UniProtKB/TrEMBL annotation:
Identification of the protein by name: tRNA modification GTPase MnmE
Subunit and interaction comment: Homodimer. Heterotetramer of two MnmE and two MnmG subunits.
Gene: mnmE
EC number: 3.6.-.-
Annotated PANTHER family: TRNA MODIFICATION GTPASE GTPBP3 (PTHR42714), TRNA MODIFICATION GTPASE GTPBP3, MITOCHONDRIAL (PTHR42714:SF2)
Cofactor(s) this protein requires: K(+)
Biological source species: Chryseobacterium camelliae
Domain TrmE-type G, first and last residues per copy: 217-383
Co-factor binding details: Binds 1 potassium ion per subunit.
Residues reported in the UniProt entry to bind Mg(2+): 231, 252
Length: 461
């Protein structure tokens, strides 16, 4: 199938000023030539642009500009043509139909990038980075994806893998001379290398929590009793009337989710139903969903009305929702309605009763008091996840799992050396470590993995 000439719309569907159709394959120039009589394309230089009409037989479909990229100096390393046309969906459809008539076929999802990978222009982690660049929704995720596109993670791994490969070769050589009982691989030097690899793998694995926050956003559950000010706070953070605000308890029956960007990071804010015992069946479902959202949240922002006399229910609810990896922020709300001494007392109560570490903030969402303090606290959570000494951040679940498998294999190699296990088993564990490291860049892979990765791409990329 790699010998086929493929074509697809590279720009978004819908009306626009311009649209672009990509064509790639050994016969790309001849396929396009059948509908572009203005110039002899095979006589043109690479990276040149040409004006003319794209035709279907005698009928002119549109006035276009063709960009020519000759192999191997193209994204796919094949002959490629990009056709820029007036952005009518109908015109794009007609051009694609004509190209197929001329001998091309429609590209599958991610097939252009797959060809770039198969032809050696990019490795697998860079291919995945292309999808991450396209999907980036904030500055932090863009920077991380661009760094990976430039080969960041591959560069980190390749040096370690090369050194490890040298030791594997020596161990394999020992197997060939098993009867002579000789050692070609210095075991102490191998231990030093394994310690170095272990440190690097741990550093990359630890960066995944930060990377996941960058890529998918940090989930923030806004929780509290009815009328604690949850919806008012959501509106204040978003600076728009996103949630209904009412003095009637139980107004919010379902969860409301919105994305807030703070200092280049995305936060998925989840406004939930007020937590209380209720006979209302619909409200009870909302309370259940609220608790489920907390289970998947990174940060719990618990709102407590500063004017409340008894916080025993709040304390009981907080304790029931806590987990070791959950960041807790307790906000005393409606401080515009009470004296400073009142909300100072609130903090003392929670400090004495809550077993989990937490940050305490006083706010008035109605008066917009200290809302920025809460935003700063959310932002600092993400910044603290970042390991300052590590420039490469893992954002991909597949990479994370491959790194963990590599680390497990390294541990087994070290155990094999310490227990003086046979050379055959040592070679086996070393090959495992090499294989898992190679999975990241695609040096070791299979069709199922490739199919899963590239099926998530859009057609035309």
């Amino acid at each position: 199938m790699n010998n086929d000439t493929i074509c697809a719309l590279a720009t978004a569907n819908g009306v626009g000023a311009l649209g672009i159709i990509r064509v790639s394959g050994n016969d790309a120039l001849s396929v396009v030539q059948k509908s572009f009589p203005a110039k002899k394309l095979e006589k043109q230089k690479s990276h040149t642009i040409h004006y003319g009409y794209f035709v279907d037989g005698e009928e002119a479909i549109d006035e276009v500009m063709l960009s020519i990229f000759l192999a191997p100096k193209s994204f796919t390393t094949e002959n490629s043509v990009e056709i820029a046309f007036h952005g009518s969906p109908h015109i794009g459809k007609r051009i694609l139909e004509t190209l197929i008539k001329n001998g091309a076929r429609m590209a599958k999802a991610g097939e252009f990038t797959l060809r770039a990978f198969i032809n050696g222009r990019i490795d697998l982690s860079q291919a995945e980075a292309i999808a991450d660049v396209i999907a980036s929704e904030n500055e932090a995720s863009r920077k991380v994806a661009i760094n990976q596109l430039k080969g960041g993670i591959t560069n980190e791994i390749s040096f370690l893998r090369t050194d490890l490969l040298n030791f594997v070769s020596l161990i394999e050589l020992e197997l060939d001379f098993a009867e002579e009982d000789v050692e070609f691989a210095d075991r102490s030097a191998l231990i030093q290398l394994l310690n170095k690899i272990e440190l690097k793998l741990n550093s990359l694995i630890e960066s995944f929590q930060y990377g996941n926050a960058i890529k998918n956003g940090t989930a923030v559950a806004i929780i509290g009793k009815p009328n604690a000010g949850k919806s008012t706070l959501l509106n204040a953070l978003l600076k728009e009337e996103r949630a209904i605000v009412s003095n009637i308890a139980g107004t919010t029956r379902d969860t409301i989710e919105e994305v807030l960007h703070i200092k280049g990071h995305a936060f998925r804010l989840i406004d939930t139903a007020g937590l209380r015992e209720t006979m209302d069946e619909i409200e009870a479902i909302g309370v259940k969903k609220a608790k489920e959202k907390v289970e998947n949240a990174n940060i719990l922002v618990y709102l407590a009305d500063a004017g409340t006399e008894d916080f025993s229910e709040d304390i009981e609810m907080i304790e029931s929702l806590l987990r070791e990896d959950l960041k807790l922020i307790i906000c005393a709300t409606k401080i515009d309605e009470v004296s400073p001494s009142a909300y100072e007392k609130v903090e003392d109560i929670f400090r004495n009763k809550i077993s989990h570490d937490f940050d305490f903030i006083t706010i008035s969402a109605v008066e917009n008091q200290n809302i920025q303090d809460l935003k700063n606290e959310l932002s600092s959570y993400v910044e603290q996840l970042k390991a300052s000494e590590n420039n490469v951040v893992i954002t991909n679940q597949r990479h994370f799992e491959a790194l963990q498998k590599s680390l497990d294999a390294v541990h087994k190699v070290k155990e094999a050396i310490s227990f003086q296990i046979s050379t055959e088993l040592l070679a086996y564990e070393l090959r495992n470590a090499l294989e898992h490291l190679g999975e990241i860049s695609g040096e070791v892979t299979n069709d199922e993995v490739l199919g899963n990765i590239f099926s998530k791409f859009c057609i035309g990329k």
